[in-house]
Write a structure and sequence with these properties.
Radius of gyration: 31 Å
Order of helices and strands: HEEEEHHEEEHHHHHH
Strand content: 15-25%
Number of strands: 7
Helix content: 40-55%
Largest sheet: 7 strands, antiparallel
Shape: elongated
Strand order of the largest sheet: 1-2-3-4-7-6-5
Length: about 300
Amino acid sequence: MEAALFALPWVPVNIAGSDLLAKAWFGDTQYRVLLSDLNTVWEEEMNADDIQSRAQDLNKRLRAPTQAFFSHLCSVARPSFSSQDDDPISAAHVALERHGENLTVKLKSELAGLPFYWEFRCTTTPVAVVCRQLVRPLLAVSRVLQRQVEDLAVLLARKDAEIQDYQENGAVLSRARLQTEPFDVHQYRENFFTQIGVTLDSLGFDSEMQALYMAVSSGETGRKRKRSPHSSPAAEDKHVSEDHAPDHLQITGVASSLASQEQNNVKGSSGRPLVADSKQTVPSTAAAGSEERSTSRMKKKKAVGLFR
């Protein structure tokens, strides 16, 4: 049951006017529900015997086995835990009650023409479960997203170097409105941190975040490091520290090396950088008299894409 929960995302739901995060798994005749308001995490786990006993306590006239009414329970309960409250199949009245540290979700529906009652009596979750189901996967998601940002920053630095090479070889942008400034990772970070507006109690788990959470929690992303039988713990610690070096150092180092490499390539045989002219066009083939001199230089590549 624990493994089945790892394959499910946290879904933002509204239960009786309360915004919560929910993760619910329903089996054949058992279920497990996790709910959180980002202050507390509640859970309930029930097997077939427990479900049968509670069903008889809440529905005195019910004499059917668990298999007979559990599918109906799933059909009315799933929409409440999957942000599908308006689903016509979930014709149930939902109420939410708090009793001290416990949380109860009450459902009232109709089964075979008779009222059917159910209660999810959730208690506070142990810290170990919270760490496994919420804290550790979200920390892994943040690391994956940070690595994605680093990769994109490196890609932008390479794109800027490519554009600079086009311009220094005489390319002119065909549409001025598409012109952009070179990407400065440090300035970007400063602007981003000053403009960030996400609150700590936000329950915004969109579809992309849910997919990333499931991928991380199920072990589909990230490298699994294998320890070599000949490696020492000190060497492994050094390798881990290199992988987790500050991101601005990694990005700056790569961007600087790319920029210096592009500048060396652009200098040419004269040893001085070429200056781009905003109105300059791509140089044409040299005249026959200067044929010997032009062969000593690299052949200019025509700009493609947004340049002409």
